[in-house]
Amino acid sequence: MNAAIRRVQYAVRGPIVTRALELEQELRQGVPKPFKEVIKANIGDAHAMGQKPITFLRQVSALCLFPPLLSDPSFPEDAKARARRLLAACAGQSVGSYSASPGLDVVRADVAQFLQRRDGIPADPNHIFLSSGASEAIVTMLKLLVWGSGRSRTGVLVPLPQYPLYSAALAELEAERLSYSLAEDRAWALDLPELRRALKEGRGHCCPRVLCVINPGNPTGQVQSRECIEEVIKFAYEERLFLMADEVYQDNIYGEGCEFHAFRKVLAQMGPPYSDTVELASFHSLSKGFMGECGFRGGFMEVRNLHPEVLQELSKLVSVRLCPPVPGQILMGALLNPPEPGEPSHQQYQEEKAAVLRALAERARLTEQLLNKIPGIRCNPVQGAMYAFPSIQLPPRACAAAQAAGQPPDLFFCLRLLEGTGICLVPGSGFGQREGTFHFRMTILPPTEKLQLLLEKLGNFYTNFVKEYS
Amino acid sequence: MHRFVLAAKQAAASLGYRGPGDGGKSMLLRYAGSLAAGWPSRGPRLPRPAREWSVRWSTAAKASVVKISEKASREKILTLESMNPLVKALEYAVRGPIVLKAGEIEKELRKGIKKPFTEVIKANIGDAHAMGQRPITFLRQVVALCTYPNLLDSPNFPEDAKKRARRILQGCGGNSLGSYTASPGINCIREDVASYIERRDGGVPADPDNIYLTTGASDGITTILKILVSGGGKSRTGVMIPIPQYPLYSAAISDLDAIQVNYYLDEENCWALDVNELRRSLKEAKAYCNPKVLCIINPGNPTGQVQSRKCTEDVIHFAWEEKLFLLADEVYQDNVYSEGRQFHSFKKILYEMGPEYYNNVELASFHSTSKGYMGECGYRGGYMEVLNLHPEIKGQLVKLLSVRLCPPVSGQAAMDVVVNPPIPGEESYSQFIKEKESVLNNLAKKAKLTEDMFNKIPGMHCSPLQGAMYAFPRIFIPSKAIEEAKVHKMAPDMFYCMKLLEEIGICVVPGSGFGQKEGSYHFRMTILPPTEKLKVLLEKMKDFHIKFLEKYA
């Protein structure tokens, strides 16, 4: 079989999740366990943890899926107006038709408008590609960028810790992964000297061509300052690196004084030569934010300063998969055209959105607070995204036991935690971490009471675990 | 030696090429083979061609090269030279140059530019709804209920739809279509697919654990191929595909840098698959690659033939003998029109051939929500059933699927309705059956209409449209037209199709996009436009063809 596939790992759904599913099965079969349910705090899936979808978005979707509902009086006019507009853009007025491969024209135009409103910087709909979640677009871009062999093989700079889609994609494409470490002692800051070091080292054995940034970070949650973004852009310009900005958590900002600055905005505002030279792809998704619509697989990317021929090749590449799922495109169209003040759905929409973001901010604070109360566990401020990524001390005897079991120590811990409490987290080794340090990633998504309970159980288990292996 | 082949050889010798360790010879052979098959030439698949390589593959590219060197700004990181060569080599004719041209013409029409027609008919792609086919009411009801569960309280939705919606939602995290599902798909839907397969195949057992929901069938096909392609040089995986084929296969093979191994369907015999031809193809391929995979499309695309039971048995026996992994693309299983033709799934025949075959032959079968009577292309729903996969391979498959998280959940829901439709006695049954039969009868009528009409046209021959959604007639192109096509740097059938598009406003795909025997020309047209429109179109095509023959006599 394909050897590259064998090297692919995706920890978020890796062995720990397999075990979690087995345990759920056992619980269903009535096998007695020290817990009543498995809490899947491993994956950034808000609805699975009880978050409700935004009503307006689902109304527009349902109207498009089943147009007879357009005569149903219980649906508001503003939702119907958006549905009619989207349906008119679908071939045969059906969401069952394939769309154009880069996505429905009208939604691409909406994305362009959205970007302009958000950043004050215009966007060209022709440079926007809708995708099946952000993941698909990220993999597509990487595919274009990976070539060469031996010392001329593409190297891709990715943060450490990183979201393991990147490492998986690079393993599959047989590209060189070049890790740049985020500074844990400074709230996971991105350091230019570290970027430079990683690049220099990379040049020794491959051809670094791409720099991936995740902002807000996953799993680390840091929100980059504007200055930092400018430095990264300058660096990319000087070192001739293609910039990929994964910005799917742009709506999830909690930290005091933290603000989301889109790479495309900063790039444009820096003016020439940067603004018309640095090649940039930015990614967004329906899965996070306040929408949490993971299952719809909706997303988009905007590319800037791409060679027109490459743009053609990109269009050709996406045409083979025909088109992104149309229901996801419809939902994106609804998201980018929310109810305006004065429209019937406006108030409810704003309330629902604010409630979700408020709850997430609360849980971010709570999680950070409670984790930091546990001796041996240290959690950086959760400035954004949906996760806490605390460091944990593991006694040498635990590490030895892990080694004997053929597991990284934090996986060993997480598996024991799962068996003992039903709490499913992802070990830091799945994301990458400095040698000799251990972490886990947990989501801040469970409802507040459950979260508190979870953190209490986690704290108790950890303390006992440490005692056991001291 | 043909100059392309020579130049390709030179380029293959250039530095930096990462590929089969044979110095590019296999690629060279592939490329030469593709030329022989009459594919449009786009240059060999090579990064950074040697400086001696002076022939650029398109005039547009040449123009931009000049533009780049004139521009004062620095060279981009990502250019045609500095990009993944496998992507550059990729082609997908169904959405290729002719469709781009159709799009341009549509823009011109919108601007009010006068044409000999008022609209462009996109008969290039198997998209039924785009051509006016209505969705199945029940399917849309269930998915709407899942999307906006408030509707479960609405008196306007039937109970049987609500029941299915509730069941699907229960399988979703937080009872929401917005949650990720398990990577192979929602469990209860996988179970429903297994039940459907058992019913369809007369009781042959299906295990939900062998079923994976996918983002359209395309996703499943490319994923399986991804896992199977390995080795280097002479041991690089060869993938046997029919000629003519649905160009997803050639694109996937190209993308994976695998070796495409062509076996020709027999046009004289209604595009039948001849096992002797399989044997010939395999034998020849063994000289330069390791043929491991055999792809079958049944009913065929673009050719529409429905395989006989005997033919399927022969293919299975061949795969068993030669230890080939079988890919059975069965997305048109509901589109069978010819009297005396019946769909027999590979899985069923395999089972019926007994344990020696059933326990050994590795098989992956694919289905989709995009075709049949549903036409739900936009949902990207599909599934694959795998048999006799090595447990390690299965593990790798699951791992690979997990990286893309899960297939779109609304597509999973749509697939569930396809495999779990209303049954006699249920409230929605009669309307469902009526709608389904209406769609299929309509398609069958249009298939016959199209076949008959094409066969009335001198210089055209259309094989019986036994199934699927396309006509793939052979067209006679006079040598004068072939010459003019060469001048325009186009394959002769591309030239024909471009002219057809410009004069009649119908967009069809040239046979060169699917592959055909050298010296023969075809085009693929869907049978999906509404009947009245189709009749008018076919008349116009007849007039066009006759004029074309006269002009280039």
UniProtKB/TrEMBL annotation, chain B:
<feature type="domain" description="Aminotransferase class I/classII large">
    <location>
        <begin position="141"/>
        <end position="540"/>
    </location>
</feature>
<dbReference type="GO" id="GO:0030170">
    <property type="term" value="F:pyridoxal phosphate binding"/>
</dbReference>
<dbReference type="GO" id="GO:0005737">
    <property type="term" value="C:cytoplasm"/>
</dbReference>
<keyword id="KW-0032">Aminotransferase</keyword>
<dbReference type="InterPro" id="IPR045088">
    <property type="entry name" value="ALAT1/2-like"/>
</dbReference>
<comment type="function">
    <text>Catalyzes the reversible transamination between alanine and 2-oxoglutarate to form pyruvate and glutamate.</text>
</comment>
<comment type="pathway">
    <text>Amino-acid degradation; L-alanine degradation via transaminase pathway; pyruvate from L-alanine: step 1/1.</text>
</comment>
<keyword id="KW-0663">Pyridoxal phosphate</keyword>
<keyword id="KW-0808">Transferase</keyword>
<dbReference type="InterPro" id="IPR015424">
    <property type="entry name" value="PyrdxlP-dep_Trfase"/>
</dbReference>
<dbReference type="GO" id="GO:0004021">
    <property type="term" value="F:L-alanine:2-oxoglutarate aminotransferase activity"/>
</dbReference>
<comment type="subunit">
    <text>Homodimer.</text>
</comment>
<dbReference type="InterPro" id="IPR015421">
    <property type="entry name" value="PyrdxlP-dep_Trfase_major"/>
</dbReference>
<dbReference type="InterPro" id="IPR015422">
    <property type="entry name" value="PyrdxlP-dep_Trfase_small"/>
</dbReference>
<comment type="similarity">
    <text>Belongs to the class-I pyridoxal-phosphate-dependent aminotransferase family. Alanine aminotransferase subfamily.</text>
</comment>
<protein>
    <recommendedName>
        <fullName>alanine transaminase</fullName>
        <ecNumber>2.6.1.2</ecNumber>
    </recommendedName>
</protein>
<dbReference type="InterPro" id="IPR004839">
    <property type="entry name" value="Aminotransferase_I/II_large"/>
</dbReference>
<dbReference type="Pfam" id="PF00155">
    <property type="entry name" value="Aminotran_1_2"/>
</dbReference>
